[in-house]
Write the structure tokens for this entry.
Amino acid sequence: MTVTKHYRTNPKKRSKDYKYAFRLIDIDTGLYIGVGYSAISEMKAFSQAMNMMKELNIPVNSMRLDKYFSSRKVLKLFDKTVTVYIIPKKNISRIGLSWYRIIRNIIDSPYLFLKEYFKRNLSETGFSSDKKRFGGVIRQHREDRQETALFSIALLHNLFFVRVVFR
């Protein structure tokens, strides 16, 4: 199984070669604070990562997400103390009240909103560096061992690539 398969190169998402991994990263330290894995959907991997973060009682000040996670169901996971940076999907005809805070932030300061939103590229960079350092191929065949391998990569990332911020 290769982790490098992408939506465009492998449109059959239900094949056994396609797995989903989701990692929540702390922007200041570079640590993965939540890790999720699923053979079914990216949303299930996201839910696992959020559950891990909640079980560890890690406070969240802000969250930057891809437009795939722009549903009301996902936005309801965050209370008013969390600033959510997300750009809606193309079809925004069914925006509800949960989008009020986000749209207000966009209107108040579009430059600052986009500057904060694009900090999510740090997680993409971390994921890419993990594939380069530890390989893009998961050689295990059983699903539980594939999950263990992906969690091990996240653990090694936290051991080797932590950034220390001096204030």
In short: The chain has one domain: 20-160. The mean pLDDT is 81. Strands lie at 20-25, 32-38, 62-64, 83-85.
